[in-house]
């Protein structure tokens, strides 16, 4: 069972009004076991801490990106492949994403081995190369694996969590500037 999603989005009746305003960021995520969702939550909260509005949504549940001034997409890397819902999101929204700033992150290694981090970045870059998009930022963040959530033989791998929450939150706070969205707190 996945942990409950922390509330970091606006109430449904406020969404239409806010989507028409400047400075709204969509944070979409593709996660199988919840680790990437947790990273996306922290990024969304960090964006909001700058005064910029942000909506958190599962990538599979996003019908369109109209009304958003920028998009952050996060996807887990599984055995060298970006989560299929992240691919579907990029394919489904390619035309709209070409016209707005996009930042992409992937949760990857669960250890500190430099070769694993380099391979994860290469895997993410290869996945993004399939699309005619030019993200303003691309980042690999640490991942988490909980063998109790996996089926044999993967249930025998060691547990690991290399998510650096301070670095993730700092990157999240930098997102509005990377996307070219000025915080109302700075106006």
Task: Give a quick set of tags describing it.
alpha/beta, six-stranded mixed sheet, 187 residues, Rossmann fold, two-stranded antiparallel sheet, 36% helix
Structure description:
The structure is a single chain. The protein is built from six helices and eight strands, in the order αβαβββααβαβββα. Helix 2 (35-49) crosses helix 6. The chain is α/β, with parallel strands linked by helices and 187 residues long. The N and C termini lie far apart (43 Å). It is globular.
Average pLDDT: 85
What is the C-level CATH assignment?
Alpha Beta
Structural class: alpha/beta
The run of helices and strands is HEHEEEHHEHEEEH
Query: How is the biggest beta sheet arranged?
Result: 6 strands, mixed
The percent of residues in helical segments reads 25-40%
Strand content: 15-25%
Please indicate the count of domains: 1
* Measured distance between first and last alpha carbons: 43 Å
Which geometry do the CA atoms define?
Answer: globular
CATH superfamily: Flavodoxin domain
The number of helices is: 6
């Amino acid at each position: 069972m996945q942990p409950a999603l922390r509330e970091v989005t606006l109430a449904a009746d406020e969404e239409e009004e806010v989507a028409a305003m400047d400075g709204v960021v969509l944070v979409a995520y593709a996660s199988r076991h919840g680790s990437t969702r947790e990273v996306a939550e922290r990024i969304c909260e960090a964006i909001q801490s700058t005064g910029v509005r942000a909506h958190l949504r599962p990538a599979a549940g996003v019908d369109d990106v109209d009304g958003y001034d920028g998009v952050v997409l996060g996807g887990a890397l599984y055995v060298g492949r970006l989560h299929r819902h992240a691919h579907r999101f990029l394919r489904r929204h390619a035309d709209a994403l070409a016209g707005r700033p996009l930042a992409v992150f992937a949760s990857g290694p669960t250890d500190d081995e430099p070769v694993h981090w380099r391979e994860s970045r290469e895997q993410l870059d290869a996945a993004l190369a399939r699309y005619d998009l030019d993200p303003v930022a691309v980042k690999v963040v640490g991942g988490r694996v909980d063998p109790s959530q996996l089926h044999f033989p993967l249930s025998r791998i060691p547990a690991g969590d290399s998510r650096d929450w301070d670095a993730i939150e700092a990157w999240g706070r930098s997102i509005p500037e990377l996307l070219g969205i000025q915080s109302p707190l700075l106006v």
